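Morning. Coffee machine broken again, so started the prediction first thing and wrote up yesterday's gels while waiting. Chain of 140 residues, entered below exactly as on the submission form.
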Amino acid sequence: MKKTKGFTLIELILTIAILALLVGVGSLRYDFLTNYQEKIEIQSVLRTINEARNASITSGYVHTVTFSRNENMVQVNKGYEVVDKLDLNKLQVLERNSFRFTTTGAPSKAGTYYILGQKKEYIITIEVATGKVNLVEKEI
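Came back before lunch.
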């Protein structure tokens, strides 16, 4: 009696199908994780800007918010003192820009600031008189 060693065609197809399923599920989880990390990071940026505004109102000192493209970070200064620095890992600041919150909470200039994610562009706007921070997410 002759015995052959090896896999049958059915065993090979089932193995490849199972591996494809595992790779597909893994890639979906990675995409979900990246989107979640971007969302957490953009919320941190908004929180940093709002904290700078509130600190200007409560402390009576002007706070400057700077978006730095070269260092890929958002920084808050009170005079020359760095109050808060947020390094961005998943997002990319598109341009260097800065503005100040006066002691009333109004910005020195209203503006639009762009931050780029993996699949989204985040557009942050600061309203003129109130200093209210708005966020718009745009699919790329």
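Residues 23 and 112 are 40 Å apart (CA to CA). Going to sketch it on the whiteboard this afternoon.
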